């Protein structure tokens, strides 16, 4: 996985290089190239590899996914949203630069993600399908809806079903679409399996975040801990406690394993990545 992460980082640098110089490009580079897990592009590439497909052809799609994820983090951290000071162990984009530059950097990364995929030499019909699904997942019916609901429930307590809905859209959509795009390329008949895995993994990932906000530390997480409780935010931990939250994670991973084994793929490649996610501390 480390080799894949290195390849992703190198290609991200190359894609940023031709952009016009200035504070917006600096802010894009600062946020996009910050130390990160690269989970979503790794999921996409791992799906392709599980079908023994040459992933190098599709590396720019992996990079586009990371661009969209990073844009969402920049905007999520803004004073009008979560107003966070720390991201990936460094000052957030608007703290390092300024709010206007951070907004433009997020906008530019979203735009660059589209252009990056448009410039790939693959079948045009497939390209349209991939772009359509990716921007559905990151748009008003997907990730943006999740952010909207997250903001709405800052002013009121959410119940468990409402919290699941927030997590499904805010976190799950981009994790699920990373696997869905791989399926659309490699084997569309397995699409529903990857969809289920993606959303279950996304929910498990967010529950992990809820737990880490309580038991983690700022140095490992790369962001402030205890902010959920400080902001009176509804989380899995606040609703059902740490022990039941951990059980929920185990159940979600069990469902992921069942769907993985239902497909004729190289299971080990996906299981390796899921094992890393299950054991994560940041």
TrEMBL record:
Pfam families listed in its UniProt record: polyprenyl_synt
UniProt keyword terms in alphabetical order: Isoprene biosynthesis, Magnesium, Metal-binding, Transferase
Cofactor: Mg(2+)
Catalytic activity: isopentenyl diphosphate + (2E)-geranyl diphosphate = (2E,6E)-farnesyl diphosphate + diphosphate
GO MF annotation terms: (2E,6E)-farnesyl diphosphate synthase activity; metal ion binding
Record InterPro entries: Isoprenoid_synthase_dom_sf, Polyprenyl_synt, Polyprenyl_synt_CS, Prenyl_diphosphate_synthase
GO CC aspect terms: cytoplasm
Record PANTHER family: FARNESYL DIPHOSPHATE SYNTHASE
Family to which this protein belongs: Belongs to the FPP/GGPP synthase family.
Protein name per Swiss-Prot or TrEMBL: Farnesyl diphosphate synthase
Species this chain originates from: Coprobacillus cateniformis
Taxonomic path: Bacteria, Bacillati, Bacillota, Erysipelotrichia, Erysipelotrichales
